[in-house]
Design goal:
It contains 1 helix and no strands. It has 74 residues and is mainly α.
Length: 74
Amino acid sequence: MDKKLLQSQLEELQTQLAFQDDTVQALQQALASQQQELMLLQRQLELLKQRQDEQASALEELPGSGDSEQPPHY
């Protein structure tokens, strides 16, 4: 192989490697961003579940909310 062909192939490989490095870096940034968003969504879900549990407990404590009570017509 002549020197020009080898040089051309080397330059092509270097270009591809640089592109792959940029792609990997972009994917890492996207993954980190998605991980942060996932953590935020998980925290929001926990807070909503806690709020729902608190509201369910509050409803159970209301007068006349017991399931064991018979309706007045019995």
